[in-house]
Every structure is written in C-alpha cells, then in structure tokens.
C-alpha cells in the first residue's frame, strides 16, 4: 500500500480508480469471467476504486482453498502462541497503515476522514485483544464421573467460516469477527459489500505480510445476491456470519439450512434512547445528537428513537436541536465536517422517503429534512420529528439514516412498553441519575446491548449482538472466540470397562 500512502496523506482524490483484485489462496486473483466494477465516491461523485464481481465458480475456488488450509492443519493445529503472533503483527501493520486504510474507507463509504481514522485505529486494538484470546482457547475437564471414568470437553475450531460484511463499517465490523475466527483456528472466506470492498482486500494483503498461511483468509467480491447467497448455501462452509438487514438475514438463515451450518447474524435495529426526568439533559442532548448523526445515521446501533419523559420533552428536544444546528455536513475528506455522505443514491432515496412519510403522517418536523444529491453526491441534514405515533412508519421501521423520532411517556411502564414496542432488540441507551432506576430499566429493556448515560461506545471485551429480529449469536469478547468453535465431549474409561455379558 506504499503507493497509496502519499495520496492518502494529501487527501487528494485519485486521478484514476484504485484497482484491487480478489484475494484467494495467498495471492491476487482475477476470475476468467469476472468483470471489473467501478465505485464512485458518494461524497464527490467521481470514480475512486474498482473491484471485480466474482462468479460462483470463483467462490468455489476460494472455499476450496479455505478447506485445504483447514484440513491440513496449517493454521488450525498451530499453537495459540503462534496464531497470536500473527494477529499481533497484523495489528501493528494496521496501525502502520491507518492513513491509507482510512482514506480508502472514506472514499468508498463517504464517512468523514476523522471518523475513518478512529475506526481503523480502534480496529487495531480489537486485533490485539483477539490475539490474547488465541492463547487461552480451552475446554474443560470433569473428575466427578466416578472412580473409573474421566470426562473432557474439547473446544475445537468450527472449520471453514463465511463472513459477509456490510457497507457501513466495512473495516471495523470485519475486525469484530475475523480476528476471533482466526484466534479460534478457523479458515475464512470473506464477502464484503460491493460498495465498500477495498479495505477488506487491503487487509488480506496485510495478513499475508504478517505471516498468515496461504488459504486461511480469502476474499471474494461482488453482488450479495450472487456470491453472498452462494456462500451461505455452500455445502463445504461450516459456519456463516452475516451482518446486514433483517430481511436479508432471514434469507441467509434459510440458505444455511442446506447443510445445517452454524449461523451468526447481526441484523437491524430501531434503538431507543430512554430519557427519564432526572437525566442530565445537556449530556443526553449531546449524545442523542451524536447517536443519530454518527455515520449519517447509517449505523445498526443508531439511537433513532428518543423515548423521553413528557416533563422534559420540550426542553430536551430544543437542546438536541441546538447541538444538531452546529453539526457540519459535507465533503468527507474535509476534517472539519462532522457528517459525510449517504452511501449511494438508492439509500438516499430511501431516507428521503421516510422523511416525506413523517410529514404526511402528521409528525412535527423540528429541524433538518433538507438534502442534496447534485453531482451524484448525497447529503442529508440530521432530521428530528416530534409527536411521532408509536405505530407509525417512523417509529417502527429501520431508516438507516440521520432521522430521529421523538415520543413522550408519562410512567416507567410506558417507557418500557415504548422501548420494547418494535420487532428489533439490538441496543438501547438509558439516561438517568437514579442507579436503581437504571438497573430496573436494563432488566426490562429487550436489547443485546445497553448503554447507561452514554451511547455507541465500548471496547472489544464485551459481546455484541441482538435479540428478537436483531440477530443470533454474539461477537467480540471471549464470547467472540467461542462463537467460532464447537464442543466435543470425551469420555475416558479408567481401568477395565464392566462387561455387558459376563
């Protein structure tokens, strides 16, 4: 990536698209019938990268490479110490290439360059954490089975894993999965979103530089409906990890049933910010504004529903409006901007449709609602609606854009009912100075992740994942490694086994 370093440091747009082929069995790979697809920057409207569209035949090549690499033990039978060394070296190489990786991430996704730098740096920390776990993957023993029997529980890598990642956080979300799968001893085929594939391909090259054996990590690019679906269906893939929308997650779950492969799903969210009357309103307002504007609202844990006590609703909404009034939306390569572009025209139109529906449904527009798509550059101002009915489209459906719906409550029971009154259960924030009330709330709120007096924060030590229609399984933490393993029970007879027939 040295050739990109100078360009990244200058923050200039490339004069021609950065071309990156697929990566299979330790080397660049271009299928005989695969076509090159150019990606335009959603923040600039010009071509910036080019990747290939894989065929099912290309996917078969990648899965075969991963299967060979798993079965011959070149990675799965290495010591935890040896695997940890590769992951630690990868983390260092990520840190050495933060500027280039962040630059490519911003070009393809449209997120602000400062945010991209932060995500890549944080991802390096996840790789370091996972490296430590590689050395402590273990099973269990049972010496309670009687004088002539001893029991073992062996934890083994699940095998070949398919990882399908989304376009909103391509590098970071992959780093919440891939190092844990590798720490467990699995081999992997990654299918990144077609819109944002380049940083995944660059990571594959860094892993090879770090000493990862050929075939352990492979990347196929292209359409989810073709390659992603085929990966979920593939009979030689032992597990599929998918991050994306709930409707697509359902189809992945169905496809995986062909060989009963293990499935991990992190899906959509419609996440409440629950603000009680005693909350610090200044702190809450700042975090609520961040929670809806971060990544232009294109975030599965975005705090897109404000559920607030009626006595402080008006005051809090005004404070949120004041914070959002200071938010700068624009060129993602301009470090002074807080919010960048919407990822593509289709997503832009979808968000605009929700904003228009909110107005038609009688919700009160507090701020925002304006947008621009001139020159194939897609920007939407953070938008807030009050008086949103709990059963309305704004309150129920995942928008995946910078649109906040506000609903008031009068009692604790109403707050919990509103918070849980959607099909999703990914994340929630609770704002209160009352510790007892906070703990009572977290027990009642249906979500895989809870933030108390904060939002969209944390580290790799804690698991992530959803309940209800927000997913299956957990990533990161020690749970993240366990997700990519299977348990095997072993019974050891000590001495002579009692004869069935004397």
UniProtKB/TrEMBL annotation:
<dbReference type="InterPro" id="IPR015590">
    <property type="entry name" value="Aldehyde_DH_dom"/>
</dbReference>
<protein>
    <submittedName>
        <fullName>Acyl-CoA reductase</fullName>
    </submittedName>
</protein>
<dbReference type="InterPro" id="IPR016162">
    <property type="entry name" value="Ald_DH_N"/>
</dbReference>
<keyword id="KW-0560">Oxidoreductase</keyword>
<feature type="domain" description="Aldehyde dehydrogenase">
    <location>
        <begin position="36"/>
        <end position="490"/>
    </location>
</feature>
<comment type="similarity">
    <text>Belongs to the aldehyde dehydrogenase family.</text>
</comment>
<dbReference type="GO" id="GO:0016620">
    <property type="term" value="F:oxidoreductase activity, acting on the aldehyde or oxo group of donors, NAD or NADP as acceptor"/>
</dbReference>
<feature type="active site">
    <location>
        <position position="266"/>
    </location>
</feature>
<dbReference type="Pfam" id="PF00171">
    <property type="entry name" value="Aldedh"/>
</dbReference>
<dbReference type="InterPro" id="IPR016163">
    <property type="entry name" value="Ald_DH_C"/>
</dbReference>
<dbReference type="InterPro" id="IPR029510">
    <property type="entry name" value="Ald_DH_CS_GLU"/>
</dbReference>
<dbReference type="InterPro" id="IPR016161">
    <property type="entry name" value="Ald_DH/histidinol_DH"/>
</dbReference>
